[in-house]
Design goal:
binds glutamic acid
């Protein structure tokens, strides 16, 4: 069980995400992290421990984006530590993902990606998600690259339960969310 929160809008997302994490912290508190997109660059900050520790380490003026995702973790795969904290990025820094749930076939998928040349830096099941999305995204010709299609194809490979929020540096004004057997609520105002 983890807490995930995302925001897409016209306001600076940092305070909204931190507030969301504080409300979700009962779902997991071994580490916390956020990612935002600014000028087609995904910026990540994560840390072991509670949301208040993350908050104390973030310079308010360094995260100015209006699209972002955040996570407060209760580890299922890999010890509680900074490397295993979410968000996780793919090897090319094009995608960032926060995840609630368990990808049951993560060993097979991770092995498949390792054989395709991808490297892993954490012990989580989650880190394969941005890399598998990148794998499908890169399969298509540059002109036809389709973020939604890549997330859709990756989700079809997952066994288990998940709710995920995904950022892509090529689409700085949006995020894609997907769920299967894990809770996810979208609010519009
Ligand atoms: N399986 C992921 C991890 O261990 C997410 C944790 C969870 O939702 O409980 O990082």
């Amino acid at each position: 069980m983890c807490g995930i929160v995302g925001y897409v809008g016209t306001k600076k997302c940092l305070p909204i995400l931190l507030n969301g994490l504080k409300n979700l912290e009962y779902r997991g508190y071994d580490s916390a992290g956020i990612a935002t997109i600014e000028s087609n660059y995904i910026k990540v900050r994560k840390e072991s421990g509670r949301v208040s520790i993350l908050e104390s380490l973030i310079d308010n003026n360094s995260f100015l984006g209006c699209v972002g995702i955040a996570h407060t973790r209760w580890a299922t795969h890999g010890i509680p530590c900074k490397e295993n904290a979410h968000p996780h990025k793919d090897n090319s820094n094009s995608f960032a993902v926060v995840h609630n749930g368990i990808i049951e076939n993560y060993k097979e998928l991770r092995q498949f990606l390792e054989e395709a040349g991808y490297c892993f830096y954490s012990q989580t099941d989650t880190e394969l998600i941005p890399n598998l999305i990148h794998y499908y995204y890169s399969e298509e010709e540059k002109t036809k690259q389709n973020f939604l299609n890549a997330v859709f194809k990756a989700c079809k490979d997952f066994k288990g339960s998940y709710a995920i929020l995904v950022l892509c540096k090529d689409f700085p004004n949006m995020q894609i969310v997907a769920k299967k057997n894990s809770p996810l609520v979208i609010g519009i105002r």
